[in-house]
Design goal:
Number of helices: 14
Enzyme class: transferase
Order of helices and strands: HEEEHEHEHEHHHEHHHHHHEEH
Distance between the termini: 44 Å
Pfam family, one: Sulfotransfer_1
Radius of gyration: 19 Å
Bound molecules: 3'-phosphate-adenosine-5'-diphosphate
CATH class: Alpha Beta
Organism: Gossypium darwinii (Darwin's cotton)
Oligomer: single chain
Keywords: Transferase
Strand order of the largest sheet: 5-4-6-7
Largest sheet: 4 strands, parallel
Protein name: Sulfotransferase
Shape: globular
């Protein structure tokens, strides 16, 4: 099945290359990682014991930072690559499903579609996991990452580089979704993180790939500067008008929906296939797992909680809502980007 890439073991960078990259170069990446790691600022982790700050961004030391070194040193982008970029818990699972279904809509029937038996995350390689077979993958490649735009190598972001689809979400919903998700993955030996603590960390920017607002602004600015390269979406818009957004997605990806497809209801079929109701009730998403590394194994069911807009507010106090709204207004001031209250 060439659409499915198993996630390799990224715990040691050198394990991931299957001889495709010169061992000296791999050694150099490993050495660089070991050299910088001890000197990076540390902050409290949500899922792991701590996060490290690299070039202003908070990353898990054993996974995301290694993945970043791999991307920076060894990833060979193609101008035909499409990279789905997201901050965690902003709609990644949904966007992956919609994009995969849109691009491959003439290849698979809706009755026996891969998304019926594979979690959306299993349909697209995740750059952080140092996928080892990317070079042999046919174009156009659909890729995914949580890395902020600013950390990606120039080869991905400048001139003849990849195209990106980015999705963002109201920070209150992101925070609460992330807090609940991370506590489920947090090892038993570490005490759960309280909402108050998660809130403080999030507001200070200390959360995977955070600060959240910088992440959003990086892709927002890139979408304004090069709209043909970066499609910027909001989870809330997707909820409100899914068919409009799916058509925009098709156009951006170079797979516009024809009038005939529209009249035959292909857009609706894709929306139905990728809906929260459908995906969350599939056996694969109720009982299987996603293996990101030897240490990170996630029950697929954790990717599906409520899928609602505004749910975060029911967990937060009025004071918390006020503070996070104030931070958001301040950070986004003058950018032209707004979130609801
Ligand atoms: P990830 O970063 O771990 O991949 P991501 O998919 O970005 O997570 O976000 C998960 C959120 O999207 C969950 O939101 P909640 O906690 O507020 O409920 C999840 O329920 C929601 N979600 C997952 N799949 C869908 C879908 N098909 N439609 C709408 N929302 C979805």
């Amino acid at each position: 099945m060439d659409y499915f890439l198993t996630s390799p073991d990224c715990d040691t960078i050198s394990k991931t290359y299957n001889g495709q990259i010169d061992s000296h170069l791999i050694q150099k990446t490993n050495d660089g990682y070991r050299e910088i790691l001890p000197n990076l600022p540390r902050g409290k982790g949500w899922m792991t014991e701590h996060l490290v700050q690299y070039q202003g961004v908070w990353l898990t030391p054993n996974f995301a930072l290694k993945g970043l070194m791999w991307v920076q040193d060894h990833f060979k982008p193609r101008s035909t690559d499409i990279c789905l970029a997201t901050f965690p818990k902003t709609g990644t699972t949904w966007l992956k499903a919609l994009t995969f279904a849109t691009v491959n809509r003439t290849r698979y029937g809706f009755a026996d579609h891969p998304l019926l038996t594979t979690v959306p995350h299993g349909c697209l390689p995740f750059l952080e996991a140092c996928p080892n077979d990317l070079d042999g993958f046919p174009s156009p490649r659909l890729l995914s990452t949580h890395f902020p735009y600013t950390l990606l190598p120039n080869s991905m972001t400048v001139n003849q580089s990849c195209r990106f689809v980015y999705i963002c979400r109201d920070p209150k919903d992101v925070l609460v979704s992330k807090w609940l998700f991370m506590n489920k993955l947090r090892p038993k030996e570490l005490a759960p993180i309280s909402l108050e603590e998660a809130f403080e960390l999030f507001c200070q920017g200390i959360s995977h790939y955070g600060p959240y607002w910088d992440h959003v602004l990086g892709y927002w600015k890139a979408s304004l500067e090069t709209p043909e390269k970066v499609l910027f979406l909001k989870y809330e818009e997707l909820k409100e008008e899914p068919s409009v957004v799916v058509k925009r997605l098709g156009e951006f990806l170079g797979h516009p929906f024809s009038l005939e497809e529209v009249s035959k209801g292909v857009v609706e079929e894709i929306m139905k296939l990728c809906s929260f109701e459908n995906l969350s009730n599939l056996e694969v998403n109720k009982s299987s797992v996603l293996k990101l590394s030897t240490q990170i194994i996630i029950d697929n069911r954790h990717f599906f909680r409520k899928g609602k807009v505004g749910d975060g507010k029911s967990y937060l106090t009025d004071e918390m809502i006020k503070r996070i709204n104030e931070i958001t207004s301040e950070k986004l001031l003058g950018s032209g980007l707004v979130f609801g209250s």
